[in-house]
Structures are given as C-alpha cells and as structure tokens.
C-alpha cells in the first residue's frame, strides 16, 4: 500500500497517468499451476488514480506498472 503506479489505457499509450496502491487484499483472488513446476497466486488491489484523463471510462482496460523502487542519479 502506498506504492506509486503508472497506468495507460489500451489504445491511448501516450496518455499515461499516475496513482497509488490504496488496498491489497489479504485473500488470494485466484491461483494456478502450470505442469506442476510453477504456480502463481493473484491478489486483488485497488489503485487510486491521480489526474485521471478525460477519456477514461468505466470498464476500460489498460496496463498498470507498479514502481517498486526509485534511484536518483
């Protein structure tokens, strides 16, 4: 919670906007296994967007990049 996120809406990649993770579920939303050698567990999160573009509409899909760390150079 509190990590920065950068989001883009599918088809509008040039209009990236930012937000912050405001909630992470403590219960898994789903899990899967591939050939028994690897598995993944998914958790639901809530992102609070900042400066949401006017073109954004409910139900649109896109890409979310979570910023885990930053380095000043």
- Element-by-element helix/strand order: EEEE
Name the average pLDDT.
86
Tertiary shape: globular
Number of strands: 4
Give the helix/strand class: mainly beta
Report helical residue fraction: under 10%
Radius of gyration, in Å, reads 15 Å
Q: Kindly report how far apart the N and C termini lie.
A: 25 Å
Largest sheet, spatial ordering of strands: 3-2-1-4
Q: Low-confidence parts, pLDDT < 50 over ≥5 residues? A: none
Instruction: Give the biggest beta sheet.
Output: 4 strands, antiparallel
Helix segment tally: 0
Quaternary structure state of the chains depicted? single chain
Describe it for me?
With 73 residues, the protein is mostly beta strands. It is 0% helix and 64% strand. It has no helices and four strands. The chain has strands at residues 4-9, 12-34, 38-50, 62-66. A four-stranded antiparallel sheet has the order 3-2-1-4, with no helix packed on it.
Summarize the structure.
Helices cover 0% and strands 64% of the residues.
Tell me the layout of helices and strands.
Blueprint lengths: L3 E6 L2 E23 L3 E13 L11 E5 L7
Antiparallel strand pairs: 1-2, 1-4, 2-3
List its salient traits:
0% helix, four-stranded antiparallel beta sheet, 73 residues, globular
